[in-house]
Structure formats: C-alpha cells, structure tokens
Amino acid sequence: MRAVLAPEALEAIVEVLRRRDWRVVAPTVRDKAIVYGEIASAAELPVGWKDVQAPGSYRLERRGDEARFGYAVGPQSWKRELLAPSVRLLQIERANGSFKVAKKAAETARTAFFGVRPCEVAAIKIQDRVLIGGPYADEDYLERRKNSFIIAVNCGEPAENCFCASMGTGPKAEDGYDLVLTEILDGSHRFLAEAGTDEGAELLAELPQQPAEEADTAAAEKVTDTARERMGITLDRSDVHELLLANLEHERYDDVAKRCLACTNCTLACPTCFCTTVDDANDLSGGAGERIREWDSCFTAQYSEMHGGGTRRSLQSRYRQWLIHKLATWNDQFDTQGCVGCGRCITWCPVGIDIREEVVAIRVTQEAKS
Ligand code: SF4
Ligand code: SF4
Questions:
Q1: Ligand 2 pocket, residue 299 CB under 6 Å
Q2: What are the tens digits of pLDDT across the range 202-211?
C-alpha cells in the first residue's frame, strides 16, 4: 500500500499513534544536537535543521527549508530504547530470615520509533540476531522489541561520515519497518509512504492522503539515488574479512593506539555494539539488594578482566578486537556484519579516528606486499 502525504499529515501520525496508546519517540533538537525523545506533536521534529559532520565534529545548521528529516543521524541510536542503558535484572529482599528474589518485569510501554534511518533499521535487525536470534533470548530486549512499531524514513541527506551504501544498509530501507516514508523536496514538499506490515497499512489508512502517482515514486527513487551518489569515502567490504584476519599484527594497530583515548564513545554511540556488564549492590543494612545490567565497552581495560588479569591489556589489542569484530568475526559469530556504516563512531570519536581510514591503511600495505 502506497500513498502521498502532505507534511501536515505527520501530525496525524503522532495523533493516531498516541490515541492508540503508543509512546512516540522521534528525532528532536536538544543541546545543539538531534537526539531521540518522546514527542507529543510533529512540531517537535527537527524542522529546517541539518547536521554537518566530519571526523570528531558535529554541528547543526539551518537548512533554509522546512524539511522534517533533512539530516543524517545524531549521537544516539534506537539501541537506547531496545537494549536500554541500565536495566534492573533482579531485586532481592530479606524477610523472616530468608531471601525473596523478584525478577524485574521488562518495560512494556508500547513505543513507536518515528524517523528510523535505513542504517538503523539494519542495526536493529543485527541486534535482533545477536540478542534474540539464538537459543537464549534476552528477555528485556525481546519484550521491548515486541512492543515496538517502526516508522522508517529513507535518507536524502547523508553526512560526510555516512557509508551505508558501501555496507548495503541504505540509503533506502528494503524491509524491517511497519511504515516507510521518503521526504520529497522538489518544489512540492510531500512524503511517499509505503506500508511494510498490516499494522503499518492500518496506520496509513487513517492518515489524510493522496494516491501515489508514478511521478511520486520516481521522485522518491531520485531522493535515495542522489543520497547514494553523494556518499563520500567508502569501505570496501568485499574482502575485508580476509584482509583483517591476515593482518593481525599490522603496525597500524600501534599507530591507532597512540591516537585512541579509550574514551568508549565509539562503542556507546554505535547502534550495533552490545557489550554490557552486571553489577550487584546491596543496601547498608544488608536487607535488600539488586542486580543491574548496564552498557559497557570493550575499549576499557576492565572489560576483559578475569581471575588472573585481563586478556586485552593494551589499547592496541582493544582497538584491534573492536575493528576485527565489527568487520570480520561478527560474520563468523552471527552470520551477519557488525557495522551498518552510520558513521557515528567517526563523528563522536574526539580524535577523529575513522574506521574506513584504518581499513584503507591496512589494505594499502597488503597490496604493496602482493
Ligand atoms: S562501527 Fe561505526 S559506522 Fe559501523 S555501525 Fe558502529 S558506529 Fe556506525
Ligand atoms: S571514540 Fe575514538 S578515542 Fe574514543 S575509544 Fe573510540 S576510537 Fe578511541
């Protein structure tokens, strides 16, 4: 099912979802960045803003039009909603000389994700595979995922650090959404809307709309084709698995270790990274305790700590583990790639370390040798 929506119809999307008891989370401007937050009106979308990104750099600028989705991606990803930064797993109370252990019920608020980029849809599919696609499902993630509704928005404005086209994850979403919009700004501001599920079709049927003509479909195709052409530096993934595994001791890892601050920004901003840690805490009287799961990062020395010490003590080994996992061993482990090309790890790295450049540096010496 396909239709054309006027920009004002976005308000109807928010209204219909809220009337049906969906919490609507969407991009909005806060603290000079585009972040994801609960909205009560489509007026809270980043109307007329664009993001200007470079390695280690991000700023917002006015666009000079009324585009609702005229930017790429911000520092946050939908991982915040599905693999929550902090989850209480257990609560323990002492009563009458024994302990009562209560398992924390997962958050069940029905949440509509409004404005999910194609690379982010791909990231959600990857986390689905990792967290609920095996024999042991993460219960909290599963519950949140079952209670999610995805409105994707195809990309017309890639940032300098975007490389989803190289990773096969954008700029057009092929599946994994309930409804997908393409914003068309060719003199007549409108959206081409296409349902991906029955629930998406039900929502679309409730919106004020016009039938989609061939010209609208062609204009929408042009939006994503142009975005694909505008994407700058690429990442050649055709042989990256073999390349990285054949160069485990490459000198580039010593070089990157001199620049990396081990700040963990790249992993926290990444929509597919899933490292967590579990902490137990009790109150001072010993009468109650809890077990909390929180985001962690493989860039910290403590992350690999076991009895007898850590397995990745040097920064060189931690960067290597991250890069190779993202682009090579993730495929061996989960039969899917670990990177969707969103560029967040490049933009939000305070020293501008660029995953694409690191691969090129290894490739150049490999080619020189052969
Ligand atoms: S590794 Fe970097 S570019 Fe790839 S998905 Fe993560 S943040 Fe995005
Ligand atoms: S964001 Fe940059 S400096 Fe920080 S841990 Fe990642 S690569 Fe290192």
A1: yes
A2: 999 999 999 9
